[in-house]
Fold Cytosolic Fe-S cluster assembly factor NBP35.
Amino acid sequence: KDESLDLVAIAERMATVKHKIFVLSGKGGVGKSTFSAQLAFALAAKDFQVGLLDIDICGPSIPKMLGLEGQEIHQSNLGWSPVYVESNLGVMSIGFMLPNPDEAVIWRGPRKNGIIKQFLKDVYWGELDFLVVDAPPGTSDEHISIVQFLQATGIDGAIIVTTPQQVSLIDVRKEVSFCKKVGLQVLGIVENMSGLSQQVSDFKFMRVTETGEQRDVTEWVMEYMREKAPEMLDLVAFSEVFDSSGGGAAKMCSDMGVPFLGKVPLDPRLCKAAEEGRSCFDDNKCGSSAPALKRIIDKL
Ligand code: ADP
């Protein structure tokens, strides 16, 4: 009986949310939270009313990636208030509730389900165009419970983030199969860390001796370029990092009949934006990852 009352309460809360999008990954460390954070920034920049819900209970990195470390959730008579980056971008994460961010959260399934239910039932988002849900990697208790809790209110679908190599793609196949089993539409797959893309002026150049010692010769190379071909400093150098000879995510998508959304390169400037809790779309400082992300988000 309690369960059905909870579902009614969740349905009431979710009645003011137009679209719900899940961001999933098979493995950790592939850039799922980075993608969720930048997706939320991008939607908010388009003047949508956006909520970002972080249910990665054991590794909540969303507060940092949104520049909200150390913030706390407040309670009002309407419920828990999200922490706001802008008036149209609110964030909710277990990270806001932990007294010490270095403390490990060791919770078993029921406790995790309990907090997810509370997030859905007690957070007062108000009117939202989009609720982006950053899920933990894999397919565990959290995924099953959130899908169950939200099924009645409808979920638009899931975006799955992966890296190009086989070891990550194998887990994505499981993720896709999970989505099919629970009736969650796969909106598409993003191949992140797809090659390294870096502005030439950001590179360090090393001379490696026979004994393996490295000598930094960046200044010498830069001086040469500045003198002989300054336009080369603005070039973006690209190299493959992971083995994608198997065709990467694009091939897997065509095999599995799910949409391929595009590739985002490894880009130190995107990593820096995430570390500093900034949108990578704000200035022109995010190399080629920002336009790549923008192309993907515009497709949704
Ligand atoms: P996940 O949520 O999948 O565990 P994160 O989003 O936390 O992964 O990303 C792991 C680390 O890699 C973070 O430091 C993040 O800033 C960095 N990162 C993710 N994608 C990129 C990218 N395309 N270029 C550079 N750094 C990236």
